[in-house]
Amino acid sequence: MYHEIQKMERQGHSISYIADYLGINWRTVKKYLSMDDREYEAYLSSQANRSRELAPYEHFVKTKLDLFPDTSASQMHDWLKEYDNNFPAVNPKTVYNFVMWVRQEYNIPKQKKEREYFIVEELPFGKQAQVDFGEYNMRTSTGGRKKVYFFSMVLSRSRYKYVYFSDIPFTSSLAIKAHEKAFRHFDGIPEEIVYDQDTLFINDENFGDIILTKTFKQYINQRRFSTYFCRKSDPESKGKVENVVKYVKQNFLYNRSYFDLKTLNDEVYAWLSRTANNMPHGKTKLPPVDQWNIEREHLTGFIPIKFQFDGPDLYKVRKDNVVNYKSNFYTLPQGTYTGNECKVKLIVSNNFVIIQNLSGKELCRHKLCTGKGETIKNNDHKRDKSQKINQMIIDIAKKFDSPSKATRYFELLRAAKPRYIRDQLLLVKKCFEDYSAEAVNTALEFCQEKQVYSASDFKSVTKKIQQDLKQKSKPNITHEIKTLPEGMVNIDKLKPNTSQIIDYESLMSNTN
What we know:
It is a single chain. The protein is of the alpha/beta class. The protein has four domains: 2-106, no CATH class; 128-298, Nucleotidyltransferase, domain 5, CATH 3.30.420; 313-382, no CATH class; 386-473, no CATH class. Helix content is 43%, strand content 16%. It is built from 18 helices and 15 strands. It has helices at residues 2-10, 15-22, 26-33, 37-48, 58-67, 73-83, 92-106, 172-186, 214-223, 239-253, 261-276, 288-295, 386-397, 403-416, 421-434, 437-450, 455-473, 501-511; strands at residues 128-140, 145-155, 161-166, 192-195, 202-206, 209-212, 226-229, 257-258, 313-316, 322-325, 328-331, 343-349, 352-356, 362-367, 375-376. Strands 1, 2, 3, 4, 7 and 8 form a six-stranded mixed beta sheet that branches. Strands 9-12-13-14 form a four-stranded antiparallel beta sheet, with no helix packed on it. The radius of gyration is 41 Å and the shape is extended. It starts with a helix and ends with a helix.
């Protein structure tokens, strides 16, 4: 191993290349290169006489590596603990060194799976475009740093490009706006557009069944282009636009200063005209603008539309009352989470993240975080507000004839509906405004006896009791029945005299 490393170093190979080729750590390569022959012999002698703490597991590790040569040291560590419940508590580095020693001792290099690539045939004109997003930290004119976000689209055949910048992270609505600008720039719409599985466009990938976000689905239904989403962890399926993102960073943005968003978009449009779309492409050897003049004839005609968005994007609320936006977590007031389908509206305005419930009521707002993996907190969201509820229970209980019974009932009501106790108490309080005190107190007795712990049911019981009380309070009115006189007992059997029809006919004839 030592002599092979020395040989490859003399041939001009880098440390990382030698490490990959021999399947060893780059630190090992660096250590061996720092030794001369005498130092290496002394090192071998010291290693030969050193006892190995994990020597009893040599056969187990060798067997596993023979079966699975690509096994990592961390995975082997877990297998060893699973294999032996009394496995010693050693440092992960010790396991790594032992696994590497077994690999070298039995010549079991770590196999690296390489993906095979094939040249892709050129697509027909007008067939496809590819979309991707990027971000970059720019220097400002005042010496600070400014993170910008950009949308890029490229026509697959002609390599004609479009780039649009934003100073805030892209949302579904903003991405659709960028699509419209790109179609205007291309003077047409391709048949198909290729995307990553980005949350701006899809909610879920259910074993190949792509579930689009509501806003994006409405848009493509209106625009009538088909979509293709790359598999997860496979960005190379859209290599053309991946190269565009890298091109924007290394050619346009590198060492450029940020002044304002409008200036940046004006500058990138000029760069597209003079460089990105005007210089010969590395593969086709033709300027994209010349190929675009051919491809535009094959695109679907672009007619501007006024797309009506449903409003702010909806974001799922997690169990711990936070919402995930652009890889950062923003806290929400306690009790916001009500179940798996709980969602909120999120608006970004003036560097603030504004979070609303579905009816549009603002829940909270936070300063927009441009980093990653941060949790932006509002200490008020964790504040214990139970003391205010306790006082409300006491105040409403005083309205009852027996405040102690009412207090016990309210505590059971709180246990049944902890998130909505405030609304429950207010509904009970309103019963005193709508119904009599007697009805409310009777309802309390009934609900306690029947274990009814719901304010809406309490109100229904109170209403029924109120109706019963009103019915009982009405006076009983009896009507005297008059009997017939003694000589008219059989009057019900009398029949009135009736006229014959012939009498009316003769009467009418005399009249004429």
